[in-house]
Structures are given as structure tokens and as C-alpha cells.
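pipeline stage [seq->struct] | target=Histidine phosphatase family protein | organism=Weissella hellenica | residues=220
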Amino acid sequence: MSINLYIVRHGETYINKYDRVQGWTNAPLTPKGINDSEQAGKRLANLVFNNVYSSDLARAVETANIILTHNDSTAELQTLPDFREVFFGYFDGISNDVAASAIAKDRKLPAGITFNEISDTMSPFTLMDAIHDVDPTGDAESAATFWQRLMHGFTTIAKENNDGDNVLLIAHGQLLSILGQQFAQLTASQSEPKNGAVNLWQLTDNHLELKVFNDLTTFW
């Protein structure tokens, strides 16, 4: 069985605009974010989706509903918590620099190193565990916890769809970056998706194969 899985990153939020860590914290779409979603909807307007899913976080749901205004598919939006962004616990909603400083101190990295620079030197799973380790509340997700729920989400989609189906999923930046690094051997910098970008994956019973990544131009 092979499913055509179109994964779109939600439109820009105000937390994205201010370069802060955004996991489970809800923030409204900016005017640009609304346009990101509108443009994604127009590029996907000619596809008929057998099922449509999104993370249950507000920015993903809002993006999905905007996309669907441009689409004639009759499938109703289903929200799946399994596709939430990574939960950053104490660091959720605050500056990337704060998280970078805490990780650098714990892992004895150079002072002043940026979050993006840390991402380039660590695997996504090591980075998740580093955030988990320095979270003073202990709420940030470990890599194992995140991966387990994410794979459960893909299992759900596989069970609910048939061979050759077109499926739409609205998800999140770090989640998509992790998929790119894990299944397509992209680097951290290569796997950073733009808001509103379309990513096409082939989903089988036990594997994801990347076909198109970070597309902002194609009309499907």
C-alpha cells in the first residue's frame, strides 16, 4: 500500500515572526501567515483529498480551514494530537537564545552559540533530549516520547486510507525537519520548511519516502 501524503507547514504565526520557540503554545497567524495558507490552498486546489488531517494546535487548524476553502474535496478535517509540534516545556514561547544558552551551558558548548548552530551540530533526537534535560520543569518531551506519538499518528493515517489515496496533513516546522533528517538524510539547514510549503511523501505500512520538499511554487 502506498498513500500520497501532502504535508503542509502551517502559516506564519506571531511567535514565528518574533523568532521564539513554538511548540504547543498557540499563537494566531500573522497577515503573512494567512496569505501563506491561502497560497497553499490555491496550489492544492485541483487535488481531491480522500482524507484531511491536522495537528490539533490552533495554527494548524486555522491553516487547514483556509486551505480547504480553496478545495472541492468533501472530506472533513480531522484533528490528531499525535501531529502536534515537539513540546519544549519551559522554553515554549520564549526566545530561541534562552534555550540555546541553557543547552550550551549544560553541554559545555561555546558561549553565544545560536539555536540554529546547535541544530547543525546535533541530531534532532539529541537536540530534543538536550532540551528535555535542561528544562527545569521536566515538561519538555524526550525524543522517545515524541517519536512514539508521531509514529502512532502515521499508523492511524495508514489504517484509515487505501492504496493510491491522496491525503492532506497540516503540521509543524520542527516535526517536518525531523522527518526530513530521519527519512531523507537532509541536514538541519536543508530540512527547515517554509511556512505554507507543501511536502509530498509516500507513506507505506512501515516507511516514509520523500518525493518533494519545501515546495512553494508547484500547482498540483
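stage status: PASS
auto-comment: Residues 143-160 form the longest helix (18 residues). The domain at 2-90+137-215 is CATH 3.40.50.1240 (Rossmann fold).
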